[in-house]
Amino acid sequence: MAVELVLLTRVSYRGREITGPRLRGLLALLADDLRTGCGTARLVEGLWPDARPEHPTKALQILVSRARARLGGELIESTPAGYRLALREDEVDASAVLRRATAAARCLRAGEYPAALSHADAGLALWDGAPDDPPPGWADPVAALRADRAPAHQELARTRALALAGLGRYAEATGELARVFARRSRDEEILHELLRSEAATAGPAAALARFDAYRRGLRDDLGTDPGPALRALHEQLLRGTAPAVRRGVPHEPNPLLGREADVTAVTELLRTARVTSIVGIGGLGKTRLAHAVAHRTELPVVHFVALAGIARDTEVADEVAAALGAGESRRTPVGAAATDSATAVTAALGGGPALLVLDNCEHVVAGVADLVRGLVAATRDLRVLTTSRTPLGLTSESVYPLPELDQATTVELFTRRARAARPGADLPAAEVDRLCRHLDGLPLAVELAAARVRVLSVAEITRRLADRFALLRGGARDTPERHHTLRAVVDWSWNLLGDDGRAALRALSVFPGGFTADAAAYVLGGDALELLEHLVDQSLLKVTEERAGTRFRMLETVREFSAGHREAAGETDSALRGFLAWARDFGTAHHASVFGPEPRREGERIRAEQDNLLQALRHAIARDDTATVAATAAALGGLWIGDSDYTRMVPLIAEIVRQLSHVRPEPGVTEAARAAATLCTAYCLTVQGSHLARALFALRRLPPAAPDTPVRAAATVLCRLPELAGSGPAALDELCDGDEPLVAGFASALASYAWHGVGDVDRALAASRRMIDVFAAEATPWMLLMAHSRMGELCLQINRGEEGRRHLRAALALMEEAGTWPDTIGIRWALVVANLQLGAVDEAEEWLSRVAPDLVEDDLGLVTFDLAVRAEIRLARGDVEGGLRRGGAPAPG
């Protein structure tokens, strides 16, 4: 909520400056106690401290009346004892600053440094610079209020400095901490963080010099020593003058691309969490990221221990102890305690700040969790970083899910590694981009694909990705053996799963476009959430939050691996039955939803499942599963027609119509079949003339239904097409003037095109207006959009630019409000033409600028039209030569 009453740096209400001293004082007194207000006696005393008016209460009433007249009658409310401001605490800066200071301090105590910094910044933003000290003998209520809030400003500045230090932003923190310490020279918490920040920026020597100066001053003034926290930091700084220790941390042979943000994020987590786990599927580069963090960390001692070579949980402590030089490497018998080794590890790490990195923990996660739990309890300054495909599950743990590389970084990495493999290789940008889109953003997959450039072109590599596990193999000799093939990487995760987890992955691989928990239940049976959570923990599923809700997604690499195991296990038919059952139920539930009152939400829901529904439609056609064909075709057809994505229908329309015309659908999917047949008939009628007779046959053989929904009404009109064709305009007029409003609306749409086709523009316009009236009354956004678009189109054809522009704007507003139709280019083009007809050249050019980014270079028709419109605009501006050039004619000599 924006601040409405400003008192701390100036006095204004809703941006309007207030200059009268009595009115300023009244607002300051009332703001000082916003919740209860101020009594009459207190207000009189504060406003007239020296010479009281003859009638103080009356004078106060007059002042309040003037304030109400100037600032609004609702601002000052009367109370039984006096008056109060009718504003919330966040609407008055003098109250908001106290709330921010309290919240910032609370977050700082809890170690929530980002939140503390946010609150401190918001609070300090309420001041225009630091508050001045009040002059001696002041009695102004505004000055008194500001002086009362000055300590809050100081606390906010202190909190901000400490939060910056807590976040490790030492360069920013140093100056602010020094300024706070100059005012509070005995604040040892501030000095503690100032010393840490100086050590990190200027070096330990500068911090040690400041500490010595503070200690001498303290002894001289108070005869005492710094507190225990400062003395401990002093000892740490003395140790910090020694070189940093990095044990077992290799230097990488080539740059780590695209991971700077991840390195920063993990480094920040290490400052605030005792245990941080980098989690992700194999081949993502978790180990390389841990190497980079280990080199970057400010902690003076780092131990890096690889655990890939051990096999049992009981061996973890022994392996770590051996790596730290705390004893001979030994293998503890199964069932025996590892207490001695854990104690040795604790002793080897010492009492100072250190980072222990445990790499590849997923196969011994229980043993790692036990060891880390004990180390955290036994040490104060130790930080632990793990890399794993699953979290440890500790309360001290912060999990960092490592994302895949973005497309740009994937392309850069492939290009670099391909050039290293064969410097003269031809790497066409478009081909490289296409290949990289199939590599899941996995650095390992990119490296393996780039190595194939030695013997294959980029296009050949892309084609061979149909069998990616055979193609992507043969890693570099200096990489772990488990990374020499992509199959080995996924197989490592697969072998860590139990039977239930593997069976779930096999079944879920039937979904090509991700899935919801409800969809997963169709192929897993029962409550699938626990299994899904387990697979997420193993980094084999990713969770995404989308507008349509929470979805689970497999990397294509994992999906293909699981699908291969599904085929080998003979489970494909069973998985497909569940998949098709889900698609049938989904399509039945949403067969006409984009034509209802909430097209945005429903369109997003269907669009999220588009790849799955399309796959289900193809399987259903192959199996002659008419019910599923009807349900999925209805949902997809509605989405594609709503999006004007007609090309998606072309390869499928013949098979959909064949299925619908041969077999009567099950009773439960009759309405979905009606929607599918209606959409196919409309498509064949308006876009592609072939298959119209068969689509209409499929529609007419369905049982009749009352035209009480948009789909049923459209079906009613389309079923009358043969009769209308034979009876002429009279039969069409009868439908347009009938008692069923939705039928009248769709019939009017048909009539608009019919009358326009025979040259009767007036009747075509009348029919279009009837469409608008009907569909506006019926609250059907898609049909109303269609009506306004049709009306705008007609108006432009007869040069009624103003009326056309009005309807086109209404259509565009419906598009943007509903959010279902991503392609608005047709409406925007029409608005360009409408404005040109009206001579509104500037507005036409503005609309043209909105169209230009959506032009496709190989769409010759649109590009030609764009050139023609630009020529028209130049001619309208009097630039004849430029207009002729834009239009394609040679410039006059």
From TrEMBL:
It comes from the Bacteria. Residues 92-238 form the Bacterial transcriptional activator domain. SUPFAM superfamilies: P-loop containing nucleoside triphosphate hydrolases, TPR-like. Pfam families: BTAD. This is Putative ATPase. It comes from Prauserella shujinwangii.
